[in-house]
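Reagents: none. Just compute today. Aminopeptidase P family protein.
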Amino acid sequence: MSQVLSTPADRLAALRTVMREHAIDAWWLPSSDPHNSEYLPEHWAGRAWLSGFDGSVGTLVVTQEAAGVWVDSRYFVQAEAQLAGSGIAMMKLVQGQATAPMAWLAERLPAGATVGYDAQVVALAHASQMEEILGPVGIARRGDLDLLDAIWPDRPALPAQPLYAQPAAFRDETRPERLARVRAAMAEQGADWHPISTLDDIAWLTQLRGDDVAYNPVFLAHLLVGRDTATLFVAPGTVEAELEAALAADGIAVAPYDAWRAHLAALPADERALLDPARLTLGTRQALPAEMAVAEAFQPSTLDKGCKTDQELTHVRRTMEADGAALCRFFAWLERALSEGERVTELDVETRLREERARGPHFVSESFNTIAAFNANGALPHYRATPEAHAVIEGDGLLLIDSGGQYHGGTTDITRMVPVGEVSAAQREDCSLVLKGTIALSRARFPQGIAAPRLDAIARAPLWATSRDYGHGTGHGVGYFLNVHEGPQVISIGAPVAPHTAMREGMITSIEPGVYRPGQWGVRIENLVANRPAEASDFGDFLRFETLTLCPIDTRCLDVALLDAAEAAWLDAYHAEVYERLAPHLEGDALAWLEARTRPLARG
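Predicted 3D structure written out:
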């Protein structure tokens, strides 16, 4: 297509033209890639390119007459603004109604219509849902085309950065040991083969890391695990000879990324494959021999990866000290700059945080886009300051800072509130109630194996008591120098209560309740916690949370009178630990700032 497609409206018109050429009545474009990734290489960021909405999650559906992007409450304001004038509507996705876009199509398309999508980027589970919803009303599905290729002339190429081995000092298992655990799970299902496409699982199993995806140290790859073999499919030239030899010694062969589908098609048709429908795409399933038997089960490596070993947790604790020290240096600078009247913007916050983290040991990159959001911008849970649109931090109000780092010894994610000028009584009340939610869940004891979504209400209870709430989940799993959002556990009232979401020892999860007032301010306070054994009980095994994050919670944002004695004691104990562990890493202004911000509440 030769014409310049400079606006979302132009791109939408071009897509509809190509749809008519292929007799496709509706086009389905998720935020996904062949690996079911959350953070996408630019090549697969087609929904953002076509619609103009660049949030990390959203599904675009286009017919000849209408188009919409379905987003959850984190993105309502952002999507409405970015989609304005595009001819694409912002559609609100309510928790627990993930199939709403499919139902929308079922209501609008006549029997005999065709919904098109690229099967290579549609999860097998979503394709099954489409069949259940669209099939009974006579709507056909077609997955053999990627229409973006026809209208995106300068589409970015696939990344192919060099791979590297995770440093040996931060590993406590071998590749053969991890593969053996996967093969044991395969044997339980009677499976001969197990295709894996999720990038963090592949990085964990192979103990390799890469730089193909922003903020996550992973690389584009597929992995096929057999009873006695394993083959890693990566871009040619990304594995140096020495590393390839080390993989071969551990029983992992290397093959070209593009050979994945052909290799699957050549597998023996009379054997059996273990598939996880939520973590493989329809395209991968279609590449297997049609007559091949399939066992559908949860991907075993995802659970193994989620349960950190004691040695990994030791590295994470050290990483939290380095990260906390960097944050103290940053906050000392910020407080001094604001008090001296320097002009500080949200972009300056992002830059300075990155610089301070980079000064610490074993730092690799940020773990996600830093959210530095002043006053009204804080009401957008996934706000991102840009050179074209950002705020100067001046006057009175609240500054929300959500940031994180990738270190060889772990992944961090923390949100803190900063008072700027005078903080109002209403803002203090919101901050205090959010903190009460954070403390309530942090102090919880719970049975080992409980489904993580069931814990969500503990954090919401102090907010619900005053008729407040928030639209996002309370907590997500966090990787070990891997993705900052990691399963299988998720603390969210919108998540299914399923066996694979069970809380197990060693898991790392965020606790991050919030309150958002559109056009005014937003509040979120976030720590990472680890599941640890609780005291012995006559009623079975229980777990508790160990708070891993080390950084003061600014009490100047609080109405301390709203904290009960137990909550105040928790905060004082937390600050005492923060001071004890961070003080040896600091000096000068940063140490003075730490001392001031960790004083017990009784001392004011």
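The chain has a mean pLDDT of 95.
Action item: order primers for follow-up constructs.
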